[in-house]
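User: Reviewer 2 asked us to show a designed sequence for the structure in our supplementary figure. I'm pasting the structure tokens here. Could you produce the per-position amino acids so we can include them in the response letter?
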């Protein structure tokens, strides 16, 4: 049975999707953009935006009873591959040991003009 996960500590969905879905011991977190749920704003720059995305992911993981240690796959979407190194530096702080599998892509555009979006899959 699927369980819809929502937390006010991460931005509300901006379309017809859930923040995350848990089913059979797996958590599928929708792509998170760098919206601060407290004020609805997007910070400036790739470093601050990646940090906000990771905080949003952390809030959803926590709400569902998971942690970054449970993450098995991430997909990182960047508006410009020139931001890859800076995104990677922030991202790596959340996975200091045994990081998950990952893909990173440059895309033409992201919602709300964001520089980065990350979707995450976790399992117990």
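Assistant: Here is a per-position design you can include in the supplement:
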């Amino acid at each position: 049975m699927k369980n819809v996960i929502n937390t006010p500590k991460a931005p509300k969905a901006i379309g017809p999707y859930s923040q995350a879905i848990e089913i059979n011991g797996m958590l599928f977190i929708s792509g998170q953009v760098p919206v601060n749920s407290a004020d609805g704003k997007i910070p400036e720059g790739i470093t601050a935006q990646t940090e906000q995305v990771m905080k949003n992911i952390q809030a959803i993981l926590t709400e569902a009873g998971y942690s970054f240690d449970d993450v098995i796959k991430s997909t990182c979407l960047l508006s410009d591959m020139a931001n890859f190194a800076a995104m990677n530096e922030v991202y790596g702080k959340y996975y200091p040991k045994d990081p998950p599998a990952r893909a990173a892509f440059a895309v033409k555009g992201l919602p709300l003009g964001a520089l980065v979006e990350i979707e995450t899959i976790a399992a117990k």
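For the response letter, you might also mention the following. Residues 3-123 form a domain with the 60s Ribosomal Protein L30; Chain: A; fold (CATH 3.30.1330.40). The longest strand covers residues 71-78.
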